[in-house]
Amino acid sequence: MLPPDPSPASSTVGFVTLGCPKATTDSERILTRLRAEGYLISDSHEDADLVVVNTCGFIEAAVEESLAAIGEALAENGKVIVTGCLGAKSDAILAAHPAVLAVTGPHADEEVMRHIHAHLPPPHDPFSSLVPPQGVRLTPPHYAYLKISEGCNHQCSFCVIPSLRGPLASRPVASILEEAQHLVAAGVRELLIVSQDTGAYGLDLKYRTAFFGGRPIRTRLAELCQALGELGVWVRLHYLYPYPALDDLIPLMAEGKILPYLDIPFQHANPRVLKAMRRPGNIENTLERIHAWRERCPGLTIRSTFITGFPGETDAEFEELLSFLEAAQLDRVGCFPYSPVEGAAANELPGALPRAVREERRRQLMEVQEEISAKRLEEKIGQEITVLVDEIGDEGIIARSMADAPEIDGLVYLDPEFPASPGDFLRVLVTDSDTHDLHAEIIGFGQE
Q1: pLDDT score at 6
Q2: Quick one: CA torsion of 366, 371, 374, 379, rounded to 10 degrees?
C-alpha cells in the first residue's frame, strides 16, 4: 500500500514496483522525489495522470510479468514511463509496447524524474516539509530495506544483473548511516541490509576511511555493521557472497550487535556445476565454515537458494546437492528450476535439461529441505525467543523471530488477546511448530 498524500494537488502519478527489495529501494527514492515536488501518488491507474512501472528482468517469468504490467498500465491509463532492470533492454519493451513514453534502466531516479517533468510538470514549487526525513517508503512503518551498494562485479553464467545494473558501486558509509538514523528515528525497528553483493561492500572504494559523527569508519561491511548495531534495532543482512571476510561478521552476531542471520546463495554443491555457474566450488570448505560459524554463534540461522537442472547437471550431481543439504542442515532454503535468461552465458552451455526434469528436481530438493526445516523448528519448542510483531490479524498476532526475514521466511503465531501493535518486540515461549512456522505463548514485552 502506498503512503497517503497529505496535500491537495492536481498532478497524480501511479506507481507499480516489481522485483526484489533492491527495486523497492529504487522506487522509494523516486517516490520521495515525487512527494517533495508536490505530486500525489496513487495505487490506481485510472486515477493517475501518468504511471511509472519499475520492472524486473532477472528471469523469463519476471520479464513476462513486467511486460504484462506495462500492458495493463497502458490499457488503463495510456501514459506510461518504464524503469528498472528490464528497462536496460529497452528494445524488448518498445517492441512489445511501442506506446510507452520513455524507458530507463535501474537506479535511474534522475532520469525518471526528467521524463515525468517532461510529460507531467510539477504541480508547484517543492517544499521539503512535504517529505519526512526518512523519505517515502513502501514497507510497513516498523521495518525498512537499506541498500548499501549498486551493481555487481561477478560474472555468474546464469545471471545478467551486471549488464543490467552495472559494476559494484558502494554508497558512502556516512550516507548509509545517516539514512539509518532517520529510519530509526521514524520508528523503524528492523533494518534489512540489501544490495546485489552485500559482502563486497567497499571493495570498489578500497575500504577507504570516512567520518561519521566525528569518528572514523572504514568503508567495509564489518565496520558498517558495527555502527548499525549501535542503533538499538534489528539489523539483518541479505545477499552475502561467501567471501572469507564474511567470517568477520560472526562475532558481531554472537555478541548481539546484528541478527544471527546469514543469507548466502550457495546455488549448488557439485564443484563442476559450480564452476560452470562461475561460483565458488570448494564445497568441503563451505561445510567446514558452516560448522565453524554455528560453533561460534549457536543461534545462527542460515538461508540459501539453489538452482536445479542447470545445463549439464547429471543425476549424480543432483544427488550430491541433496547430500549437501543433509550435511549442512540449512534453516531456510529457496529453490528455482534453471530458467534461461536472455543474454546469460549459461544459455550456450551443452546439456540443457527438459523443463519437467528441472522442475521435478526442484520438487525433490524442497521435499528434502522441508523435512530438515521441520526438524530444526521442532527443536525450538520450549525455548524463549524474541519476536517482532508484523500485524494483528483476525486469528491472532502475526510476528517474526530473529530467524525470519519478512516475506520469504516463516512466521510466529501468537495469542490475539495480548495488547500488542505492529513494531512491538515481545518475549514468547515456543509451544508448537510445523514445516515453516512457529506457534508461541506471549510472556511479555521486551527485547534481548
Answers
A1: 45
A2: -140
Beta-bridge partner residues of 332: 303
| 266's grid cell | 550457495
Secondary structure letter of residue 234 according to DSSP: E
Instruction: Pull the grid cell for residue 146.
Output: 537499506
Render pLDDT for 294-330 as a digit per residue (tens, 0 to 9). Answer: 999 999 999 999 999 999 999 999 999 999 999 999 9
The candidate with the shortest Cα–Cα distance to 27, out of 61, 57, 66, 54, is: 54
- CA atoms of 211 and 144, how far apart (whole Å): 24
Compute the Cα dihedral for 250, 256, 258, 259 and give only its sign.
positive
Q: Which SS3 state, helix, strand or coil, does residue 439 take?
A: strand
pTM: 0.75
Burial class (CB in 10 A: 0-12, 13-18, 19+), 427: middle
Contact 273, 308 (CB under 8 A): no
Give the pLDDT mean for 401-418.
Answer: 93
Nearest in space to 164 (alpha carbons), one of 97, 256, 66:
66
**The pLDDT value given to residue 7:** 43
Closest C-alpha among 26, 193, 179 to residue 107: 26
C-alpha 260/C-alpha 294 separation (Å) is: 10
- Whether the Cβ atoms of residue 202 and residue 154 lie closer than 8 Å to each other: no
pLDDT at 385 over 70: yes
Cα atoms in the 13 Å half-sphere on the side-chain side of 395: 3
214 to 156, 173, 217, 342: CA distances (angstroms): 40, 13, 10, 48
Gyration radius from the chain CA atoms: 23
Distances (CA, A) of 350 to 42, 340, 343: 47, 13, 16
Cell reading at 225: 555493521
